[in-house]
Each structure stands twice: as structure tokens, then as C-alpha cells.
Amino acid sequence: CEDCGKSLIGECKLHGPLIRAKDRVIPSRARLTLPHYLTLRVLELRAGNQQILGVFAKKVIQKRTQFGPYVGQLSTKLTRYDESRLVLQVLKDGGKYFLDTPDEDCGNWMMFVRLARNQEEQTLVAYQHCGEVYFTTVKPIEPHTELKVWYAADYAKFMEASAVSIKEESDVCPLPPVAKEPVDPWICSSCRSTFATFALLESHQCIHKDRV
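C-alpha cells predicted for PRD15 protein:
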């Protein structure tokens, strides 16, 4: 203790504990690659603090906007499967490989894009070009809209999947129904305003971020 000049095991009983300063948390590689007009939102928090994330637009994104390429590790087998994300493969040197993304430090933001459950909510199409996978918008994307992807027709054949997702919502990571919104109000951590639904809170928080 610099105040009483004693070497102590643990806290100084006279002057108390030290004020601990924590290092700044550094975002992962995948999060740092997110374009400035996109944002990540936590849609669900599962056991073990596992976050289910979605990618949302902060401003209007024009049709035929291309993103990519998807950054992942080539693998002969899929080591990590997430039912809410697309399984991606590429053809390189005559071989068919999975684009595997084991963690956020090895990929880019495209790993967070969730698959579209039907044609209505699909905003992106995934396809292969020169051994890489790209996502392109199939329609204008309005602010606060989630980016969701499905295979292009030719790529769907390559992946042995249907060209348009026809899976039922119960089969692919369904979102909580509106009827199950919690009774307690949602509170903004910045200004402490309360909102009846999570959707209203999300829109309000986007205004905060835009002002910053």
C-alpha cells in the first residue's frame, strides 16, 4: 500500500481496496468488418450467455448491392452447424469444400446473416463466383429491416437445396410470437424510457445510435 508503506497480502484494512481499471474490450474480427450502415442486434439470449444475433440495415440499401466475399475456412466436413445460418460450400481445384467459420475471429460479418424462412422475408441471395461466395440484395432494404439470405437458383442446385426456402417457421429457429411479449415494460439503458414491446425499444435505440 503506497499510503501506509506496507506490503500486504490482499486489501489494506486501513485504506481499502485498489480501484481496478479494466482493459477495453476489443471487438472480434467479424464485428469489425461490419459496414457502417449495418448493425448487429441481439435477438435472443440462450443458456451460457449465447447470443443469437441478426444483421439489420441502418439506412436504405439499394437493390443489386453486393456483399462479400464470405470469409471462412475451407474444410472437407462441417465442424460447426447453426440451424439459423446457411450452410455454404465452394468448388475449388476440382474439390467441394465447406466454408466453415469456427469463431468470430476467423470470419467476417456475413457469418451473422440468418437464413430466410420464406420468400417474403428474403432480402439477399447467396451465390458462388470464382470460388468465393457473395451475397447480393434482391430488393431495396428499408432501415431497421433484418438482412436474410437464401441460395440463388444455380447455387441451390450445387448445394442440393430448393431454390426458394419453403421451410416452415417451426423448422428454422422461429422468432418468439408477439403474443408472448413480456408484461413488464422494456427499458432503454441510455435514457430510461419505457416501451410496451421490444420492437419499439429497438427502433428507439437506433435513433440513439444514429445521433451518436
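The radius of gyration is 22 Å.
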